[in-house]
Amino acid sequence: MRVGARNRITGKVTDIKKGNLMCLVKLEVPAHSRMASVMTIESLDELGIKKGDDVEVIVKAVNVLLIKH
Predict the structure, then answer these.
(1) Calpha distance 38→31 (Å, rounded)
(2) SS in 3 state form for the chain?
(3) Number of structural domains in the chain
(4) Does residue 43 lie within any of the structural domains?
(5) Does 4 score more than 80 pLDDT?
(6) What is the C-alpha end-to-end distance of the chain, expressed in Å?
């Protein structure tokens, strides 16, 4: 997946809370900091992200995108 964002951080998925349509993916990033991303359940399933996965956190404007490693 090609993206224009240059702010990239490697993180680990620590928790996933699913709703009916959207989900909240919680992450631990370097320096023992935490971040989170909200996405659709469909996107979560398409990316195959699960608790414990290493992901790349891409921060652009107000969006936080995840890419599974």
Answers:
(1) 22
(2) CCCCCCEEEEEEEEEEEECCCEEEEEEEECCCEEEEEEEEHHHHHHHCCCCCCEEEEEEECCEEEEEEC
(3) 1
(4) yes
(5) no
(6) 12
Average pLDDT, the chain: 89
Residue 43 CA, chain-centre distance (Å), reads: 10
- Which amino acid belongs to residue 59? V
Segments forming the whole domain that contains residue 53: 7-68
> Is position 48 within any domain?
yes
Residues 6+ apart with CB under 8 A from 20: 41
Token couple for 55:
């992901």
% pLDDT > 90, the chain: 57
Task: Give the CATH number for residue 49.
Answer: 2.40.50.100
Q: Does a structural domain hold residue 40?
A: yes
